[in-house]
Structure formats: structure tokens, C-alpha cells
Amino acid sequence: MNVRRRRISGIAVTAATALGLGTLSACSSDSSAAGNTDKFDVVASFYPMEYLAEQIGGDHVNVTTLTEPGQEPHDLELSAKQTAQMGEADAVLYLKSLQPAVDEAIAQSDVKTKIDAATLTKLEDHGNVEHDHGGEEHADEHAEEEHSAGGEHALDPHVWLDPVKYAEIAQGVAKAFEKADPDHAADYRKNAEALAKKLGDLDTAYKDGLKNTSTKVFFTNHAAFGYLAERYGLTQEAINGLDPESEPSPARIKELQQEAKADGVTTVFYETLVSDKTAKTLAKDAGLKTDVLDPLEGITDKSKGEDYVGVMQSNLKALETALGAK
Prior knowledge:
- This protein is an alpha/beta fold.
- It is 43% helix and 10% strand.
- The strands form two sheets. A four-stranded parallel β-sheet has the order 2-1-3-4, with helices on both faces.
- Helix 1 crosses helix 4 and helix 2 crosses helix 6 (163-180).
- The N and C termini lie far apart (45 Å).
- Mean pLDDT is 82; it is low at 1-32 and 128-152.
């Protein structure tokens, strides 16, 4: 069976995505290669890391991303040029276990400051699920399939979708920047405080917006929202676990139809970077609506928001509508 392998590659994608945090600046990064500027040069694995580097670093950093906008993180393979760029950078910011290609390159790189976001907050295992989609399944399915390089089953890497955990990571990134570039430590601290306020406001908006809803259950194509669900008292039910492209079994579809009736589910969510075919099939069969819930692995023209906070606000509106917020 290749289910396990595909799911692992999904995690890898996520990791790659994490590596691709410099996504937005990818197009322009060739002219300002990671190690050749007079700024503090940071290579970010994917968009959530890129956003932190830019918000905290401000004018003092030159951020290069490994993941192109719109690229599924698990598809990430590093070019020789990207690997060389990483070696010339002052710092690399990534989320270990999301993108194996990135993890490997960083392990072999002699870049001085390596910042692993996974060490800056507590990662969790969102369920130990077997792959028989006809049997009983737990909502937050993707975590348990994420086998990291040497582990049994890995922890869920999608921490950036919880504003509280993301803020913890931001605090750790700021401290690492201050240590690596002490001349600008005061600015990094100030920028980190401004970011913490934004993330705190976002957390408050989610708490208030999702406090009183008709249902607490939402269906999603890809089990990326375990941390968000846990933070705000919701239950994520994933159609496909880690691999957003796979087709669920007829038994799984039937199970989800029954659950939709039992729990008052109205909407099947899909994401911008992958096909909406599975979500639309389930929605049609079960008489449900579809909408976008963005896992924020990259920002593209299709994103409902220009940056992390904007897209998270759009996600909140979509959840409020789907869950019947009062």
C-alpha cells in the first residue's frame, strides 16, 4: 500500500511549504541572493516562516524563500543554487519535519544560525489514526501520519494556524535574531511586540467569533487545522488526512454524510492550492455547501487576504458562517 508513503510526502510538502516561507519574495530574490547583502540575510523555508522573518526583521533583513508562491510544499526540491544560497545566509528559519528536503539541506549546511520553529513551541500529536477510511476515524488525522525521519509517528507541524502558538514561535525567532544580530536587537524586540499584539488581537477575534455557534464540527479536505480546532473548541473532520489529492472511499463518504446530519455540518472546506474536486463531490452527495479554509502554506493571487493576518481573518469569517455563529 502506498497510502502511508503518500501521506508522509504530504507532510514533507508541508515542511517544504514551511521552508518556502519566503514565497512572496521568491521572484525578486535572485537579485539579492541570501548571502550577498549588507542586511541580515535570512532564508525562510515557506510562507509562515517568511512572514515572521519579515515582520520581526523589518528593514534590517533580506528574506529569501525556498518555496515559490503557489507551490505545494511537499513538492519542494531544492536547486543547487538554493542550497548554496542557504550556506551564505546569516540565518535559516524553518519548521523541521514539514519538508524533508529542507531538513536535509539545513543539516548539511554550515549556516551559523539555524532556527527550527518546531523547537519554539510545543508540537502535539493530533490523533493516532489508522488508514482504513471505512472504520472509525479521529478528526485530526494528519498528525499521526506524519512520520518524521526517525520517529514512530510524528507531531502535527501546522502550528502556525493557531495564533497563540504562532506568537510563541515569533517570540523565539525574535530572540534568535537579537542574538545573531545584536546591533539591531532593540528593533527586533519592538517589531516582535507589534507582531504579538496583532496575533493577540487575532486570537481574541477567533475566541469571540466562535464562542457561540450552532455546531462545533467542520469538514475539511486536508487535516491541517488540528491546532486551530483545539484552541477554539472545534472538531476538525478531515476527508483525506494528509494527502489532499487522494480520493476517499465510498465508506468514508457515507460516514461523513451521516456525521454531517448528526452534527449539523453545513459546509465542506477545501483549500486554494489543491483541487476542490473531492470536497465538491462530497458536498453534492450530502447536500452541503463548499467554501475555502486556507492552511496558509503560501500566498497567491487566489488567497483571500494579502498576508497571514488577512487570510486568517477570512478563515474566521468562513468558519463563523459554516458553524452558524450567533
